[in-house]
Design goal:
alpha/beta, seven-stranded parallel β-sheet, three-stranded mixed β-sheet
Length: 360
């Protein structure tokens, strides 16, 4: 039985990865999920698997070397899938030190603990061990509006504390691969969306606000462009990189779904109006009149777009979910999990939301 150590597995992408892996491999794998359960980590994301014999949850901070070392000692870890990170640009602007600690120091701790567990006395590494570091396209900076794409060879040019911290963690992984021939890969993905995403991010925020008849805050002129990737397509790519990817390589994972932020908001409104029955009182609340332009984010990158040519050519992965269909699936999931949304948007979230967007 292959054993995976998944960091940040109670978060958005991590929990989707765990569901996908159990759906594909069943009892043939074991997953150890380590998560500090900060605001974006939710045990409810994994309640369907929490009682399985081949699933273990450990509440720990990835910066706690003693706790992480104990996991490697107790379990014979074959694969590390490193999702755990502070990941919201707005929060990084308000409190950058948290991002530096988790994303840089935490990654260093994970690398050192894996190296201690996997390295042979002659400096080689045990057969079959692999570390996959999940990163972002934001490390590459910003593209011109009228063309160009991010490639694996694109120079790093991060603009926010978040992207700078992720770029730093990428460089650490690259250094370990080069210095120690540490068995790792890096993946840089475009913006994800789908089930279990915390509603500080654009798509779940707009879905939730629209259903409540609340204002839909859009930064600046709303024309910033992002490449959107349905989360199930992303986690499938991660599994394929671990199985088929060449060691020491970076793979960009993009959705080929470039959209302006304002286009995203209008699509969500249209799809909600299509999906809500005529007798649902929420249907009358959903309107473009809710769109409210707010002061632009500091250092707001204009456009991201990934060219997934390398992963397609070498591994055979390509995105399968077109954007409108992905939005429909996402909205349907939120319809079916209204209690989940109410739980994660209670308490401290409300104060954060009002401070961030300055709208009621």
């Amino acid at each position: 039985m292959r054993t995976y150590l998944v960091t940040g597995g109670a978060g958005f992408i991590g929990s989707n990865f765990i569901h996908y892996m159990f759906g594909k491999y069943g009892d043939d794998i074991r997953i150890i999920n380590v998560d500090a359960l900060t605001y974006a980590g939710n045990p409810e994301n994994l309640k369907e698997v929490q009682d399985q014999d081949n699933y273990v949850f450990v509440r720990a901070d990835i910066c706690d070397r003693e706790a992480i070392s104990r996991i490697f000692t107790e379990y014979d870890i074959d694969r590390v899938v490193h999702f755990a990170a502070e990941s919201h640009v707005d929060r990084s602007i308000k409190n950058p030190e948290i991002f530096i600690r988790t994303n840089v120091l935490g990654t260093a701790v994970m690398l050192n603990c894996a190296r201690d567990a996997w390295e042979n006395s002659d400096g080689t590494f045990r057969e079959g061990k692999r570390f996959l570091h999940v990163s972002t396209d934001e490390v590459y900076g910003s593209l011109e509006e009228d063309g160009g794409y991010f490639y694996e060879t694109t120079p790093y040019a991060p603009h926010s504390p978040y992207s700078a911290s992720k770029a730093s963690s990428d460089m650490l992984v690259k250094a370990y691969m080069d210095t120690y021939r540490f068995p790792a890969n890096i993946t840089n993905c475009s913006n994800n969306y789908g089930p279990y995403q915390f509603p500080e991010k654009l798509i779940p925020l707009m879905i939730n606000n629209a259903l409540l008849g609340k204002k839909l805050p859009v930064y600046g002129d709303g024309k910033n462009v992002r490449d959107w990737l349905y989360v199930e397509d992303h986690v499938k790519a991660i599994d394929m990189v671990m199985e088929k990817g060449r060691l020491f390589e970076t793979y960009n994972i993009g959705g080929h779904n470039e959209k302006q932020n304002i286009e995203i908001v209008r699509t969500i409104i249209e799809v909600l109006q299509e999906m809500l029955s005529k007798d649902d009182p929420r249907r009358a609340l959903v309107s473009e009149e809710l769109i409210t332009y707010v002061e632009d984010r500091k250092g707001h990158d204009r456009r991201y777009a990934i060219a997934p040519d390398k992963i397609r050519a070498e591994i055979g992965w390509e995105p399968e979910t077109m954007f409108r269909e992905g939005i429909r699936r996402t909205i349907q999931w939120y319809f079916e999990h209204e209690d989940w949304m109410k739980y994660v948007t209670s308490g401290a979230y409300q104060k954060y939301y009002e401070e961030m967007y300055d709208v009621k």
